Model the fold of this input.
Amino acid sequence: MLGPPGSGKGTRAHIISELYDLPVITTGDMLRTAVAEGTECGKIAKSYMDKGELVPDDIVNGVVRERFQKPDVEDGFILDGFPRSKGQADALDQILEDNNIELTHVILVVLDDKVIVERLSKRRSCPKCGEIYHLESKPPKKQGVCDVCGAALIQRDDDKPDVIKHRLEVYAEQTKPLIKKYRDQGLILETSGVIPMDQLRDHLKELLG
Ligand code: ADP
Ligand code: ZN
Done:
């Protein structure tokens, strides 16, 4: 999955995962877990994530490489939030080669910066079960409380307005160039970030064929 922060990569990855019964490898979640567990990697990662910077390639590449040791990737997988830099794309090429895997699709989610800022600044997340809410389009039934598990909702530190702006700059500088790489390989499938939730499943089914 390729696309700017807040474009809905995660939502789409989840639907595709259900459609094709594939595991999702989400670097953002893996890094947040490392932060919560207070591991060495987590401590380093946190300082970058809070600022909206990319976590250094060697850390992220290591986390992903380790993930590929698990047998569940053998019949396919979805990468969500990786690669995000040239160094990561190179590492991915190496991981794929080492594991004799070929990429089949790169799904590019396209969305306007203005919409992204509006979405992310009103996003609230459940720190316990990972459920995502939006203050206007998907508010929790009870204000500030997760519908699913009852935990208190939080705003991620990197969903604060200044940090959102910086994340978009980082995307433009470091991640956007990867679009060309995968377009040249003929792998890009483009999809809009504004497709309504209730049509997303059918849309993705059609897109992936
Ligand atoms: P979003 O896609 O909305 O930015 P993520 O959960 O994917 O949210 O990422 C949150 C933060 O985690 C990023 O801003 C970055 O600091 C870090 N991160 C996630 N994936 C990567 C990656 N592949 N490389 C470097 N940093 C990453
Ligand atoms: Zn919850």
Remarks:
- The mean pLDDT is 94.
- DSSP finds nine helices and six strands in the chain.
- The two ends are 16 Å apart (CA to CA).
- The pocket of adenosine-5'-diphosphate (ligand 1) is lined by residues 5-6, 27-28, 31, 48-49, 52-55, 60, 81-82, 84, 88, 158, 167 (CB under 6 Å).
